[in-house]
Amino acid sequence: MSKRYVNIILFCLALLVASCKTDADKNLEAQRMAQERFERVDMSEVDIYPRFDNCDELDQNKECFYEAMQELISNRLLNNQLQQTISSRDSIVALLEVNAQGQLSYKGLVDSAYHVNKVSMDSLLNIALADLPSIDSALKQGIPVATSYQLPIIIVPQEIKKSADQ
Length: 166
Hints:
Layout: H1 3-19, H2 23-40, H3 61-78, E1 90-98, E2 104-112, H4 118-128, E3 138-140, E4 143-145, E5 147-155, H5 158-165
Antiparallel strand pairs: 1-2, 1-5, 3-4
């Protein structure tokens, strides 16, 4: 064999070895690409809101979720001591969470009027909103994710309700 052929073969082998990526290089490249893709995802908004059984997939997802949540909370508070702890119509803001498995839970009182005893109100809400049902969790790119929501709740004392019903 001539020296020229040997050089060509050595050059091709060197080129072949240099152009092949090792498994470690391939893994690093895949991780880098995944990280870049993750950084482009808008995590401030979910693709699909959590869904109650009575929310059809064709309904406006966000609106149906909030309406169903308001109805659930109102029903829980309807015959509760909470109605008797305030003297006038008022509103509070509760923090609710839906975890990735779809378990809905009360996480605390975010805001209330200055005259409302926040500790007492939070305690009553903990009791009234215990054991909330499981629902379909929110989805981001098809993956279940945990989400939290601030939900305004209007509380009407029993006396005001009774006089409005008459």
